[in-house]
Amino acid sequence: MDDAAKLLASESTSNTYTASSAFEEAIHRQSETQLEHLLQTSGTTWDSSSLASGDRSLEHLLSDLSLLVRRNASHFETWTEDEQREFFSALAQALAERKSNCQKEEANELDSLYHVDGINLCAAICLWNAGFREVDLVGSDPWNRHLHGTPLWTHSRGNHYTADLALLKWFVARGARLDWHHPQFGTTARNELSAAIAYYHQEEEADFDEELANQVLWSDFRDKCTCLCSEGGCVAAVKMNAWTVLVDAGKVQDDDPLRQTLNLALLRMKVFQDFGLTHTCGNRDKYSTEVVEGHFPPSDEEIDDIHHIEAKDIESFLSVLHELNGKIQDYDGTLWEFLEEVGYPHLDEVRSKIPPLDQEVVQELGIKLLEPAESEEWSQGSDYDVN
Fold first, then answer.
1. What SS3 state is found at 358?
2. How many Å apart are CA 284 and CA 26, to the nearest integer?
3. What are the residue boundaries of the structural domains of the chain, listed by start?
4. What are the two backbone dihedrals, phi and then psi, of residue 89, each rounded to the nearest 5 degrees?
């Protein structure tokens, strides 16, 4: 065992000797340890102030180091893949030594290392090689609600534009459940991951992973959301217009039952959006930059209130959806072509028959109407429409 691992593993059964103080000792030791050497040669300096708190939990140690690598990326131009692997391997081995000697409660905390914010693929692989195999563990920290999920769900649920698809794919390859349901949000890891896939398909084509996209999106598995945008729950393909990844895959008359199911689910979503109805599932606006706690779905009482307020529009929505479901059965083309040639024109016709609103009444109610450009963008379904 190397010097860094010995320092972190020593006195692991003591209640007063924390992982934070052990790491500080390793970093500030006069003789160069393996970890300190890598930090120094990378051109950055480790700030141990974030680890000064004596009650800092073990699970945050890896997070701090991973974030260090991310936030100081400009200093790591000479940091090779081998050096990064050496760095995280040393830390993972040290944590494994601590786990083998610590109390059961502390050991269980270490099993949640895959949940920590900022973990990257290299760190995950090093943890796996060091013996940490709980890649599908459901976190249960009552003080950190984002931990109450599997690592795949947690990291998929985070900011879509910073999602590490390579890490998420690695979780799936190691047996992480795509279809695990979150007990509070009702969403699945599959559905959360689909939103990140949609982002990378539309914004970061170089990082798009077609193999992962097919594995995630080609599924009729539904989450437990309660929303009129979907019947019996949302399939992954309807998340954040993730279906655009699949538009070139064939015609609506394809004999594949899965394609038929997805076509109807996607058509329903587009009509729902066109009517401007309110989502009652765990929807977000655009690519989320907010923390997970800000996205709880509405309560049953709130859902009832929303449906009561929008009752007339809901009735029209269901009527139009029934008509389009009939029309699509005989259509010979792709879903995209059906929407352009049949769906949107039909919806425009329906809207033209709706009596204009009394502007005075609208002003009295304090309602802000969409400008024409905004309304057109909504009706056509912008790239950022979500559910």
1. coil
2. 43
3. 1-134, 141-387
4. -65, -40
* CA–CA distance, 265 with 232 (Å, rounded to integer): 10
Nearest-5° Cα angle at 279, 276 to 280: 150
| Cα–Cα distance for residue pair 12/122, rounded to 1 Å | 26
Q: What is the DSSP string of 107-171?
A: HHHHTTGGGSTT--HHHHHHHHHTT---TT-----TT-GGGSS-HHHHHHHS-GGG--HHHHHHH
Tokens representing residue 368 in the block: 């802000």
Tokens 């059906």 found at: 338
Q: What does the pLDDT look like over 333-385, one tens digit per residue?
A: 888 889 899 998 998 888 787 666 555 554 555 555 445 444 344 333 433 33
How many C-beta neighbours within 10 Å does residue 377 have? Answer: 15
CA 224-230-232 angle, to 5 degrees, is 45
SS3 188: strand
Over the stretch 97-107, which tens digit does the pLDDT of each residue have?
A: 767 776 676 66
Residue in the structure block whose two tokens are 């309660």 = 226
Which neighbouring-strand residues pair with 181?
A: 188
Residues 200-222 have a mean pLDDT of 80
Q: Tell me, what DSSP letter sits at residue 340?
A: I
> What distance in Å separates the CA atoms of residue 4 and residue 14, rounded to the nearest whole number?
18
For residue 364, what is the DSSP state? H
Residue with tokens 């690695």: 170
**47: its two tokens:** 């700030």
Rounded Cα distance between 66 and 9, Å, is 20
Q: Is the pTM of this model over 0.85?
A: no
Predicted local confidence at residue 36, as pLDDT: 52
